């Protein structure tokens, strides 16, 4: 599904992660066009502040001024606004590598990064950048996000590839179950197929309602979250995520099967081939390949054409023999025909309708009037799907084809009706082509889903980032890894993947349709709401039936994995949401807040007073002035920070001297700290210190067992505990070597200390590097 | 070899790594008692300064005073010298966890770390400490280094275990080669053994001279380095290192073979058993097990007794049948008898004299008069060794025993002469015991060798450190790992290890004896120098012969590995030495030095002026005062450091605010830096900045391709290049999370920036942590 050519939403739909307020439900409301589905927007990292947040900011600023007594910070020793430099200077002057843009209409002067400043000057940095550019192309500026709207005749193939390609594995999956009961099982082919056909029509009609209600694009995550609440949205998201992962895995596996049916010698390498295809999809999507409509339309139309021709040819052959079906081969039944078998076959066969939801997600990609055009396209797609599905099933019955491992049903049909000539190979190649296209649509949908979830703080924020090719690189990589793991884990066999597939798809369908029921009930004022509600209710009921059937009858066959993934997904998303909520709360500016200790010191300390975090207060109404800052509030204003710098030193070499000089240059109190193994050594060090001139206070700690890091940690902790008003800065002399192997030649105490001191509150660690010559 | 109970050398033999002056030769001269061999000394990390270094230090102090205009740094906000606190306070007050020791006779007051402050309060830290204490015992204070001198009757077994245990594998190794030529080969047993016996006497006599010349202990590394130069010393060190590693590997393998000869079902697990024994040795030595003389004397005396009894019993049996040797079993010759075979047998057999150098290393461990007592002991040991060796070989001939894989020669002899009863098992157990003891001596020698090399800056400094159990933990671990790798790599088979063994041992012997030749030539004034020289020359010649024989004839059989290890060892040591020399030079205080740029900026910059490092000058003679510091010299005095702090911020949240406040609290110029993906976003950020009150200068860089780290890097670099007089401090707001999994939820830009900015000169990176609540 292309998120190609979507206009960045005006004003950048801001996540409210900044102020830590609990969002409502999944956090986004439907109906806003700007909500549509993850158009990449680099601005999203700096969310727009609302009025009250701006007031908070201004108030924080006034406090700053008060605590500094109005004294401005000292002027800069450099001039930022000097004359503009050439964009790429011959000799690098200060801003030589940055384009310097003078102030223009309403704009402040700014510095703009040029290509040279976007890679690091290390060999690896440059080589990495070069390799990237060769593989993925040069970076694209944010302004290159283009706008493209699709005509119906282009949108239809592009958005239907996923659904129509399901013909390649859906009927086959159904037959694979039925043959277990031998010839008796095959008798149920037509009834089950008829039910699936009806299901397609019902769900299609249901999604037509979704399009009407969500002209901005109504993905299951949005619709379910919007109408049924956050957990339902997450559940739908989990279903969708497994859907997308399995779309890739199943499509790739099935495409590989189409190829290896024609060239059986490739069969043993199916996992390797599948992984190679996923790698190709990964690279292509990281390049940000935008769907060139015509190019992507071709395989779909070709597939429709070829399967249509196959059905007609088969029909002509059958007519030639008086519509007598050929007898299927003798089958030995391993199971009896029972309700369970029939339900399993039904659940498997219903994977023929996966991808049906695609058009409803992508309404804004159509030309105006978007909702009408997309509905027409949806109808067209459902029609094509039903016709192809019915035709294929008919042909299966007429030609007496059954499921045979290693030779797909479509391959058998083509072989029988087209013969072994070029038409057969065209059929197989076209099948593989549309399956590849179907897999590729998941590469648009999955990252966008994660983007939406990340915007709601339910997925790691890294999925918000767009790469320098304007693609959601992290989501693309995550999808490739997941699909590759699933594909390899199930040995690249389509039939093993089918049970997982149905669960996720129909879970998402069910929640989406159920959400629509609530939607129509809430919008009872709209015309024909009841008719829409009835359609959605039918869709929801049928989808739920398939979901439950799939989950129950296929539980041991693999559906358990899908259920497990869904549960884990929801759990993880909730944990992430909680983390971001708390982080946002902790990070939000609170000019009225009292002193909040970010965390308790790690050591248990009986009898210590507990400092409770201040309860969140509402921002003061406009007009009421901020109260003057008390001392306790001072930690985010410079005037009230009391510094003490601690410099642990081992010897009085140049590195230590420079660190001491650096520490003293800030004109704040400095304490030197030395750890001594013996009294003799301590005395010696003190003597050297006096020789040097005793310029700074020195504390010597005798550590008879030669512990080093721990005593410094405890000393710093003790200081903090005794004087919690002090901000302690630990400045570590650190020798920086040029080569990795030299690292073993100097002690690694500085990094160890840094790691250990990190969790301490109000302690800042600085490494003062001393660079050894090469 | 025990470094047990050695007195720390008075005044702590200082390495001169501090002042970077090139040492002469291996850097240490012989004859000083204080040089003896790595008595653990925790003081060695803070080397004693000589007069000129102290003057340099004082001068650096005066410069500091001048640049600060005599203004002292501001007073501390805490009082370091408040009343003494109880050693472990019930409620932790500031120094509650440190023992506070008031000023005493000539001593300043100091803080002493208690056990509580020696482990980190994290769960892992405490658990690690607890596990350590259970495995290795509580830490020992530096003052626990005890003094113990050995009587001859104790020293003999303790120091001879290595040499005498060689009886267990030397004769066998010789026979293993000879049987390749069948019965004809066995005819050469006696002649070769005779030559080896003579060799033992000659080398023994040669080492007697070493003891006379180096009463402070004359290890091969010291003697060769002292007399033949640094490279020769290193080569001897390399030989010794392989010697020690193979002593462990061979002794363990041979001990395992002794056990599995008695209990053949253990044979397949010999590698596992060997590795377990090495693990045991590792743990024991990390505990710092000091050789309790009597305990260690037991296995050696027992072994001598048992083997003596064996020889006597075998002799009695042989006498009973009129000294007719039993016929050896029929052997099929796979090789003809040739000079090459004989030389190989000789080289293998001469491993029977490994460990012979031990006593000469350990002269100061004897009771006075040390050199005389140790010479007597050496003579005693050589005598015992020759008698046991000769007796064993005789018995081999008389009993017609040949080399059989899986049943050691000693086991066969014991079985034949003692029968299958308890005496046989005692023999095997005693053999295993003395071999374990021999392996243990390498655990004393190897870390001490690395300690000496580290003191000469030819090995990583971490080998200087003594653990909290007063053992050279790092050397012990290194030896265990190396021996385990060798043992496992050669499948735990003694015969595969022998070729490597001979090379290292006789390389060290040769260089040591050759060094002694030079020594005597230099000390031609001493009495009987010529006789000593002659002894050493004989020893050197014979050792060299064995070394060359072993290296050439066994090259393809494994000696190549030993040669390779030696070459790599020397190369590595030279690189390390060069690194430390340069580091020492770069780190030494240079009050007269001119501005030295530690390294060139990493980007190629045409037309930039080159700043050449100042040539090292001699320290000014006393009396000539230091010239006043010029601006260019100022970087190690605080008065002339010009600071500019750069704070990169992404959003105006509490974390950013605190970082800005912290930066501003130092009352030095601060520049805020924001990276923007688009102009719109840049404008927005500037608006927020103004809303806040514009308290600090702000620079916005537009990075259209969303690069973040690289533009900041280049901006900082440009600033540095334009104003090399500024010290730039980059203060990064960094969000610290509580759990590892949360790390994926916040961007890792701060660590990435820190890593990237590290190599830049005059740039200091500070992370200002913001701790998220749990």
Features of this protein?
homodimer, 774 residues, alpha/beta, five-stranded parallel beta sheet, 23 helices, 53% helix
Describe the structure.
- The structure is a homodimer of 774-residue chains.
- In chain A, α7 (220-228) crosses α17 and α10 runs parallel beside α13 (370-399).
- Chain A contains 23 helices and seven strands.
- In chain A, the strands form two sheets. Chain A has a five-stranded parallel sheet, sandwiched between helices. Chain A has a two-stranded antiparallel ribbon with strand order 1-2.
- Chain A starts with 50 loop residues before the first helix and ends with a strand.
- By secondary structure, chain A is α/β, with parallel strands linked by helices.
- In chain A, β6 (726-736), α23 and β7 (763-771) form a beta-alpha-beta unit.
- The longest helix of chain A is centred in the middle third of the chain and has 34 residues, at 422-455.
- Mean pLDDT of chain A is 78; it is low at 1-38, 82-96, 102-107 and 592-634.
- Chain A has helices spanning 51-67, 123-136, 152-165, 170-178, 182-186, 189-213, 220-228, 230-262, 270-286, 293-320, 339-349, 358-361, 370-399, 409-418, 422-455, 473-489, 494-522, 529-553, 555-587, 654-664, 679-692, 709-722, 749-757, and strands at 98-101, 110-113, 642-648, 670-676, 698-702, 726-736, 763-771.
- Chains A and B meet through α1, β2, α19, β3 and α20 of A and α1, β2, α19, β3 and α20 of B.
List the helices and strands and how they pair.
The structure is a homodimer of 774-residue chains.
Chain A: H1 51-67, E1 98-101, E2 110-113, H2 123-136, H3 152-165, H4 170-178, H5 182-186, H6 189-213, H7 220-228, H8 230-262, H9 270-286, H10 293-320, H11 339-349, H12 358-361, H13 370-399, H14 409-418, H15 422-455, H16 473-489, H17 494-522, H18 529-553, H19 555-587, E3 642-648, H20 654-664, E4 670-676, H21 679-692, E5 698-702, H22 709-722, E6 726-736, H23 749-757, E7 763-771
Parallel strand pairs in A: 3-4, 3-6, 4-5, 6-7
Antiparallel strand pairs in A: 1-2
């Amino acid at each position: 599904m292309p998120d190609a050519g979507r206009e960045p939403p005006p004003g950048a739909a801001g996540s409210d992660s900044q102020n830590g307020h609990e969002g409502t439900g999944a956090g986004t409301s439907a109906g806003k066009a700007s909500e549509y589905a993850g158009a990449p927007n680099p601005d999203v990292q700096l969310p727009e502040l609302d009025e009250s947040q701006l007031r908070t900011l201004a108030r924080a600023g006034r406090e700053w001024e008060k605590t500094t007594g109005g004294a401005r910070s000292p002027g800069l020793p450099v001039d930022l606004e000097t004359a503009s430099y050439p964009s790429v200077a011959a000799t690098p002057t200060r801003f030589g590598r940055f384009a310097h843009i003078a102030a223009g209409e309403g704009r402040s002067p700014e510095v703009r990064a040029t290509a040279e400043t976007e890679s690091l000057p290390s060999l690896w940095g440059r080589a990495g950048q070069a390799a990237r550019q060769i593989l993925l192309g040069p970076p694209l500026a944010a302004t290159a996000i283009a706008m493209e709207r699709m005509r119906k005749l282009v949108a239809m193939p592009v958005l239907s590839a996923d659904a129509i390609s399901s013909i390649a594995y859906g009927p086959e999956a159904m037959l694979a179950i039925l043959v277990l009961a031998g010839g008796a099982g095959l008798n149920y082919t037509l009834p089950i197929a008829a039910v699936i056909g009806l299901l397609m029509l019902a769900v299609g009609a249901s999604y037509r309602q979704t399009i009407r209600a969500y002209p901005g694009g109504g993905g299951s995550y949005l619709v379910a979250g919007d109408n049924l609440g956050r957990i339902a949205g997450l559940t739908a998201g989990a279903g969708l995520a497994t859907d997308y992962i399995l779309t890739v895995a199943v499509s790739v596996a099935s495409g590989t099967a189409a190829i290896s049916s024609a060239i059986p010698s490739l069969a043993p390498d199916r996992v390797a081939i599948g992984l190679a295809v996923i790698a190709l999809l990964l690279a292509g999507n990281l390049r940000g390949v935008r769907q060139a409509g015509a190019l992507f339309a071709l395989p779909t139309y070709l597939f429709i054409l070829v399967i249509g021709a196959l059905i007609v040819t088969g029909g002509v052959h059958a007519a030639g023999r008086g519509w007598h079906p050929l007898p299927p081969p003798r089958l030995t039944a391993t199971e009896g025909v029972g309700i369970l078998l029939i339900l399993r076959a039904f659940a498997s066969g219903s994977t023929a309708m996966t991808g049906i939801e695609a058009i409803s997600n992508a309404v804004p990609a159509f030309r105006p009037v978007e909702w009408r055009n997309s509905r027409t396209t949806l109808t067209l797609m459902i029609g094509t799907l039903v016709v192809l599905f019915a035709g294929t099933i008919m042909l299966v019955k007429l030609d007496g084809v059954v499921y045979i491992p290693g030779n797909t049903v479509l391959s058998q049909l083509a072989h029988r009706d087209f013969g072994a000539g070029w038409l057969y190979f065209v059929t197989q190649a076209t099948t593989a082509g549309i399956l590849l296209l179907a897999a590729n649509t998941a590469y648009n949908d999955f990252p966008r889903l994660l983007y939406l979830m990340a915007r709601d703080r339910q997925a790691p924020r890294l999925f918000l980032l767009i790469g320098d090719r304007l693609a959601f690189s992290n989501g693309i990589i995550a999808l490739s890894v997941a699909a590759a793991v699933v594909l390899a884990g199930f040995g690249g066999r389509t039939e093993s993947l089918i049970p997982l597939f149905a669960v996720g798809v129909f879970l998402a369908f069910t929640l989406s349709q159920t959400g629509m029921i609530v939607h129509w009930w809430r919008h009872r004022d709209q015309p024909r709401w009841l008719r829409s509600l009835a359609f959605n209710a039918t869709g929801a009921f049928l989808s739920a039936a398939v979901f439950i059937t799939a989950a129950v009858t296929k539980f041991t066959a693999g559906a358990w994995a899908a259920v497990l993934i869904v549960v884990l997904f929801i759990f993880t998303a909730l944990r992430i949401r909680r983390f971001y909520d708390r982080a946002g709360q902790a990070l939000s500016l609170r000019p009225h807040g009292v002193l909040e200790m970010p965390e308790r010191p790690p050591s248990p300390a009986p009898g210590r007073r507990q400092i409770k975090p201040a309860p969140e207060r509402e921002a003061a109404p406009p007009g009421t002035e901020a109260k003057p800052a008390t001392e306790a509030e001072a930690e985010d204003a410079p005037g009230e920070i009391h510094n003490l710098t601690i410099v642990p030193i081992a010897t009085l070499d140049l590195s230590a001297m420079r660190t001491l000089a650096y520490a003293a240059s800030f004109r704040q109190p400095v304490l030197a700290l030395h750890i001594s193994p013996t009294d003799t050594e301590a005395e010696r060090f003190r003597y050297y210190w006096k020789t040097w001139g005793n310029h700074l206070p020195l504390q010597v700690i005798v550590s008879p067992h030669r512990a080093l890091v721990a005593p410094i940690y405890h000393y710093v902790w003790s200081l903090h505990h005794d004087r919690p008003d002090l901000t302690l800065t630990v400045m570590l002399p650190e020798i920086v070597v040029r080569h990795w192997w030299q690292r073993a030649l100097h002690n690694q105490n500085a990094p160890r200390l840094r790691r250990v001191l990190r969790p301490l509150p109000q302690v800042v660690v600085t490494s003062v590097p001393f660079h050894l010559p090469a």
